[in-house]
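Contributing new complexes? Match this layout with calcium ion.
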Amino acid sequence: MKCLIPLGMVLALAACKARDPLPAPAMAVKSGTEGLQPGHIFSDRLARADYGPELIVIPAGRFELGAVGKDRNAPASEKPAHAVELQRPFAMTRAEITVDEFAAFIASSGYRSLAERTGGSEIFDLASGRLIRAEGVNWRLDHIGKPARGDYPVVHVAYADAFAYAAWLSRRTGRHYRLPSEAEWEYALRAGTDTVFPWGNKPKQLDKGNLTGNGDLFPNGRNWRNAITGYSDGYWALAPVRRYSSEGWGTFDMLGNVSEWVEDCWHENYRRAPASGEAWVNEGCTHRVIRGSAWLSSMEQSRSSFRMAMPAERTNARLGFRLVREL
Ligand SMILES: [Ca+2]
Ligand SMILES: [Ca+2]
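Output block (do not edit by hand):
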């Protein structure tokens, strides 16, 4: 049986309503983190009144990583399912990192993202319904190359850009921020579930999230032909973060909105994968793993165990990230 076994922790999740106001830190950690319990919401202070992204504490525990037995069509890359134990609680940013949060990093550090250095990224082309390369596109722009809203998840960011943002946050706060491991990401998404999707085993049990419904029209009046039939979430493309109900352990938009970089190098399957929950990394690997569906994903990509290989230098309008902060 695949199930979460909390290690002596009692979840006391804060009431997480949809449309929460954007980062209003519940508390600032002044020294040490020993008192933080699972479900605790907090932010680290950057300078004066500035705070880093809002975080939530995820409990330690054990779970089964990979495709569940009921998921008969799961690809070989999600197998074999195997037990992973996360021995310590950790904090995770509740939302995908936003354009405003990334802009604070750029303003403070002078960092130039990969898309800025290489001259472009991939945006969604309304005429063809595909992602196409466009010059001059970078993190400041959205899915169609227009100036991005500050509360959109940042996109057009490569693995190295996410890594640099985490390193900057670590320097500014004195805490250790990094990309989640693949195990941490799936563990947080599952939040104790052992079903095909976080909401159950059937696609139709889906409630709400920024997925790909044929009920949401493009600006040119077209819609997604191969998407979720009869589904509408109000956004045909990117949505501001935290627009829908939170997930089981208080995160937002792990599924949907943008797919997310994790730390692990791509491996074709889980044979020889670590059982510790640490990232599985081979020095010099060219492909990382991305997790979670995006605003233009099939329902199959919203399965909890879904994973995909991505060249570490790839940027596009459907890929962003969130971070873990160690406790
Ligand atoms: Ca949508
Ligand atoms: Ca997401």
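Reviewers usually confirm one structural detail per submission. For this one: The domain at 60-86+99-326 is CATH 3.90.1580.10 (paralog of FGE (formylglycine-generating enzyme)).
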